[in-house]
């Protein structure tokens, strides 16, 4: 996450306080706090709407899209908390004017926005709900933003819409509305690259999907991902996949899909040669580390490393790829990686089969990679494995700054399960003591 993007959000949330001392004169402090919570919620939601557009400047301001989506999630949750507090804490003040039908409508839309957003946040953090259903419900978040903007514009408040703070909030509402209109526009009106599937091949437990551009191709760097929408078979929702091939002269692409979730399971069963594909991207900054590197891949997490291995210059610093799989028969792209390692003297491939060797851990790295402390470590794989490596690598000379990964989780929970597990472990430890 870029510090500039976080600073921009912080400044935008704090800016109302520039005009607050003048507005606060002779006003109820508690009601004023509730009023600010409403403004803060709108500002956070506007940022969330902008991030959802995936405009080119979003990564430039906030950082790689995988990290930016985490900010998108917490902005949504933060705005929900602010709205709940705003609704709970009485924001009414005396002497602001009389209520009209327009004011009453604004109050009603504010209530609808509150409960609608609350339901959407619950659906978002309840990760057991299928991805395509969550994606469908997520479309309504912009509508509830519009309701909230209407509520703000026409509700009784201690300043006018034409005052400096009012004009600032006008800008916030307009930006959020434009972002929502963009994301809601028909797919044909938004820029997309068009492809056609040329081959579908089995790769262990996954499938590799090769595709060729039918128009202007997407231009990507090795290690990036894009959003793909497959025509037919009920696969209309775009889904992110890492591009598992290096950039080519003809702009052809390949993705590798493992049946790990609701949509990816359907994708792996439903794709066929000749099927049309729309792409949006590319995104991500993974693989930009320089110098000697250790790549750790687990299962289908090997996909960015296949592309990076293809693009690795023969005169680059040495790279060791530790490929962790249950056994070699279900290892996607293993033969391809073995061939690349045979051609490139600076690429070493180590296959770690957990069925024979047990689970891979950071403790195994010093024996596999000489001079480990001078290497950058790049990881792509399951979240629990990433967390374990992040905790254990410093014990072996790899600092947190030298550990790079892509948080490829467009939809995540809020850590309730992890908190419950931690509390249970603490309880067990105290009981044992």
Describe the structure.
With 433 residues, this protein is α/β, with parallel strands linked by helices. It folds into 3 domains: 3-185, Up-down Bundle (Four Helix Bundle (Hemerythrin (Met), subunit A)); 190-283, Translation factors (Elongation Factor Tu (Ef-tu), domain 3, Beta Barrel); 293-405, Nucleotide-binding domain of ferredoxin-NADP reductase (FNR) module (Rossmann fold, 3-Layer(aba) Sandwich), CATH 3.40.50.80. It has 16 helices and 11 strands. The strands form 2 sheets. Strands 4-3-6-1-2-5 form a 6-stranded antiparallel β-sheet, covered by helices on one side. A 5-stranded parallel β-sheet has the order 9-8-7-10-11. The mean pLDDT is 82.
Write the layout of secondary structure elements.
Blueprint: H1 3-14, H2 20-24, H3 29-53, H4 56-62, H5 65-88, H6 101-125, H7 131-138, H8 141-154, H9 164-184, E1 193-203, E2 206-213, E3 225-230, E4 239-242, E5 253-257, H10 262-270, E6 276-283, E7 293-298, H11 303-311, E8 319-325, H12 334-343, E9 347-353, H13 354-357, H14 365-368, E10 376-380, H15 383-392, E11 403-405, H16 416-432
Parallel strand pairs: 7-8, 7-10, 8-9, 10-11
Antiparallel strand pairs: 1-2, 1-6, 2-5, 3-4, 3-6
Helix pairs in contact: 3-5, 3-8, 3-9, 5-6, 6-8, 8-9
């Amino acid at each position: 996450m870029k510090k500039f993007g976080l600073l921009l959000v912080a400044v935008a949330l704090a800016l109302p306080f520039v005009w607050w001392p003048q507005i606060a004169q002779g006003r109820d402090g508690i009601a004023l706090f509730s009023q600010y919570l409403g403004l803060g919620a709108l500002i956070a939601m506007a940022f969330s709407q902008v991030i959802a557009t995936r405009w080119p400047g979003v990564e430039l301001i906030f950082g790689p899209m995988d990290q930016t989506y985490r900010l998108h999630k917490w902005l949504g949750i933060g705005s929900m908390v602010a709205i709940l507090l705003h609704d709970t804490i009485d924001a009414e003040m005396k002497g602001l004017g009389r209520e009209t039908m327009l004011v009453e409508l604004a109050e009603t839309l504010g209530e609808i926005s509150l409960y609608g957003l609350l339901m959407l946040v619950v659906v978002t953090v309840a990760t057991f709900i299928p991805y395509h259903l969550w994606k469908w419900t997520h479309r309504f978040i912009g509508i509830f933003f519009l309701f909230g903007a209407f509520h703000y514009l026409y509700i009784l408040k201690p300043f006018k819409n034409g005052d400096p703070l009012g004009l600032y909030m006008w800008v916030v509402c307009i930006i959020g509305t434009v972002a929502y209109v963009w994301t809601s526009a028909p797919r044909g009106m938004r820029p997309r690259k068009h492809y056609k599937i040329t081959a579908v091949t089995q790769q262990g437990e996954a499938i590799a999907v090769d595709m060729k551009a039918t128009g202007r191709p997407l231009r990507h760097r090795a290690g990036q991902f894009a959003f793909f929408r497959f025509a037919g078979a009920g696969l209309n929702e775009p889904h992110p996949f890492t591009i598992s091939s290096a950039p080519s002269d003809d702009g052809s692409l390949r993705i590798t899909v493992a049946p790990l979730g609701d949509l990816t399971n359907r994708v792996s069963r439903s794709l066929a040669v000749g099927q049309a594909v729309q792409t949006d991207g590319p995104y991500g900054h993974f693989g930009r580390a320089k110098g000697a590197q250790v790549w750790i891949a687990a299962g289908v997490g090997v996909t960015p490393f296949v592309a990076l291995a293809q693009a690795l210059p023969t005169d680059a610093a040495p790279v060791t790829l530790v490929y962790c799989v249950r056994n070699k028969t279900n290892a996607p792209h293993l033969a391809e990686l073995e061939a690349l390692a045979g051609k490139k003297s600076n690429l070493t491939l180590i296959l770690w089969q957990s069925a024979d060797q047990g689970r891979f851990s950071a403790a195994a790295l010093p024996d596999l990679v000489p001079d480990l402390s001078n290497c950058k470590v790049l990881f792509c794989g399951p979240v629990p494995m990433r967390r374990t490596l992040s905790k254990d690598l410093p014990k072996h000379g790899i600092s947190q700054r030298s550990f790079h990964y892509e948080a490829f989780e467009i939809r995540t929970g809020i850590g309730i399960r992890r908190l419950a597990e931690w509390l249970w472990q603490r309880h067990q430890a105290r009981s044992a003591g």
